[in-house]
Amino acid sequence: MTTPQIFAFAILAAMMGLFVWGRLRYDIVAVLALLACLFTGIVPYDKAFSGFSDDIVIIVASALIVSAAVARSGMIEAAVRPIAPWLTTPTIQIFVLTAVVAALSGFVKNIGALAMMMPVAFQLARRTGTPASAMLMPMAFGSLLGGIVTLVGTSPNIIVSRVRQEILGEPFQMFDFAPVGVLLAIGGVAFLAFGWRLLPERKGAASLDAAFNLEGYTTEVSVPENSEFVGKTVRELETLSENEVEVLAILRRRQRNSSPTGGVQLRAGDIIILQGDPDALERIVGAAKLKLVRNEVTKDKDTPSDDIGVIEGIVTPESSLVGNTPVTVRLYDHFQINLLAVSRAGRRIAHRLRAVRFQPGDVIMLQGNIKTMPETLGDLRVLPLAERRLSLGRGRRGLIPVLVLAVAMLLVAVSVLPIAVAFFTAAAVIILLKSLSLREAYDAVEWPILIMLGTLIPVSDALRTTGGTDVIAGWLSAVATQLPPIGTLTLIMVAALAVTPFLNNAATVLVMGPIAATFAKTLGLSPDPFLMAVAIGAACDFLTPIGHQSNTLVMGAGGYQFTDYWKLGLPLSIYVVVAGVPLIALFWPLVPH
């Protein structure tokens, strides 16, 4: 081996060792690996930051934004509600979610199918208590399994089809992958429905919100004429929130009904006092098309909508609010903020918010210009709580994010747009249509993951540019000549599985495809099964978060560590090899007719 090749292998080995060690965060490890490649000369300086322009960075960032908008749309609750009573155990939940993602991935890009279903997983996790980390990685792996079923499900299939056309003059067709892919996917999904127990329980980025979760928030809403709950009962409204929100009182034409019974019907114009945690309140306001009652309008006409936010604070004993109501202190007139909700430990607040007399220790939810809010809270002597992504008061955009994602995936399926452009466009449209504010969009992006991806792409490419892949090919050739045909087929698939995390799946097919076809011709065997083995091995990267964007997409949301992937991915990879090789040999005979 040459000196650059030795450097390439050594840096990759050290990087993997640091990932497994886990004492340094993954993005720091990736930065160190890139610096090592730069200062040893195996990555040119002008290529140092080329990874940040790679499609995978755009795809992952855009998919996170689109997924966040779908989660905020309110459509997830509607989709989950009819089947929720049957999704009672983690095994059933994971099986259904993984199977749906796998089925969708055969016909739309697997990362698109995963982005569409991730909000469903979060919804189930919230409702049933099953950790989201138990669902997300199986779903990501299910998207990879589903992608191998058809020509368009995953990039390796498309590329290996092109390689076959160059070698044999004819590409693979749409469903040539299906006989092997369907059986592998069925077995893999069945394994994941039980194998999720191999994963440690992790908490994703949302766990900080849970730490500050206050269930006793009281807010007031009105029932507009277009609400579907006009004529329905209090019990039906509380059932919609799965009893996470309680109706404390109803005010109708200056008459007050405190602690209304479940059979009381709601009418247009009713003012309802609700109590629950912020997320549950936000969901029920959106799902029932209720309207928050505020002292004034949502914002100043001179304030950009993206600067309007919600923040929580604690009323201190020195606050000028103590002993006063929002009306007497003229909260909006003097400070341009709206009171959305109040939480008072150990006390129920069953009257109008405008009549609430603030007390020391009250936790209040305020809406206003997020840029000037800290100064305003200081003037009021209100101690701000840790920043949270609160959505109460922002409203929902219903079907819009789901339709935008569906159109984007359709354009990809019919080859009008590449996947990166489609997702980027979808994210931009969603923001322009105000389904997600700019602040929420930036919050949705997992920036450490993008740093990791951008820095690792030139690092992994160094294995190819230094000729390291040629060295690997030479090793494979030396071993392959000593094996029987089925052993050579197994070797090719294992090699593709092992190389994919470092080259990405597209590069793996481009490197391994011609090597596999050459092996086959040298041994007098058919190239087709070997090309199939390369495609499946390259598409089924279950060992790391960096080999496929689906794995990367769930890393931050699931709170996974680098080493979590092989705990579930290694047995699944063994299954793919043990089951996949005989299936390929069965449907694609090794000896040409």
TrEMBL record:
Which keywords are on file for this protein? Answer: Membrane, Repeat, Transmembrane, Transmembrane helix, Transport
Offer a single GO CC term for the protein: plasma membrane
Its record classes its membrane topology as: Multi-pass membrane protein
Query: What GO terms in the biological process aspect are recorded for it?
Result: potassium ion transport
The family database entries (Pfam families) matched by this protein are listed as: CitMHS, TrkA_C
Instruction: Show the CDD domains listed in the entry.
Output: SLC13_permease
Q: According to the lineage, what is the superkingdom?
A: Bacteria
Kindly list the GO molecular function terms attached to this UniProt entry.
monoatomic cation transmembrane transporter activity
Q: Per the record's keyword annotation, is Membrane included, yes or no? A: yes
Protein species of origin: Pseudorhodoplanes sinuspersici
List where in the cell it is found.
Membrane
Name the PANTHER family on file.
BASIC AMINO ACID ANTIPORTER YFCC-RELATED (PTHR43652:SF2)
User: What's the protein here called?
Assistant: SLC13 family permease
